[in-house]
Amino acid sequence: MQPSPDFPTPSSRLSALGWDDARAAQFAEHAAAGLVPARVSRVDRGRCDTITEAGPVRASSKAVASDDPEHMVCTGDWAALRPGPEPELVALLPRRSAITRATADRTSRQQVLAVNIDTVVIVVSLAMPIRSGRIERLLALAWSSGARPVVALTKVDLADDPTMELAIVEAVAAGADIVTTSAATGEGIDLLAECITGTAVLLGPSGAGKSTLANALLGHDHMGTNEVRRADGKGRHTTVHRELVPLPGGGALIDTPGLRGIGIQDATDGVEQVFSDIEERASSCSFRDCTHRSEPGCAVLAAIAAGELDARRLDRYRKLLRESEWAASRGGSRKSRKRSKQRKAIARDIRALYRFRDQQR
Question: Mind listing the domains of the chain with CATH numbers?
């Protein structure tokens, strides 16, 4: 059987996906137990696809299941796999990074989109109106994860005024690499590939061209694609699951379903990084606790009055900070309630043990 073009040769498979000495050290105890390392490439209910040194393996994931969305097995996880007629994931290795967002039900829990990520590629279509707020939210997710963000502007061949649209993106994506691309003409694909290091995840709305861009980076059609609606430029969910695929030159790429809602949670550091221009000016305010509303000597308001800063950007900054801090406080309350519940359960068990001992006397 010829090897699939999606997988490197067996001798280099895991190292090409990011396996290194540090992970090998973490895995030493599992190796002694006869387990083998595997990287999760796709997750289904109760089962997942993995990549091992011997090749792709479909395994049960019931042993590592969790009721908490934050700790469920996820695409990109490194795991200990028990080989055999019925392969099974036994344990997950510690995650180095994670892309998370607030769950759709707006509870204090977080949904993990991808883990062990080195590069976050934020996909923005130039064939649709640029939404600065969406880009800022995705950048906040990327920066807070610890990964390096790259903004890929797709469909430049369909853009009305790419120069103007590029300027809009540059104004909100300071500190991130920005690459203009077209999968149709091949423009910018090689440059984007050079910007990607390690494992990269594609994030963006449906219709932005994530799957088409993924195919261009992979060098063959692996991801399914659909046309967007001409009326509003919106696309259907071509990708319905997260999938990790090895890149030809090493590393891996994770395509994700289109994101409608992008709730952020406990991402204050990421928000401050995205709005570093506001943070820098705020350090010059006369008052340390300046709210940038009406205080005298406010450097942020002075920048807005001078036309150096957009007032709408300040509004979006405030909104994201409030959202992140509110969600973080709810998360802290949930964890506190969980700890309290555990303490009460332990106390009940101890009291029951004492009663049992008294009855035996």
Answer: 10-92 (2.40.50.140), 98-255 (3.40.50.300), 268-327 (1.10.40.50)
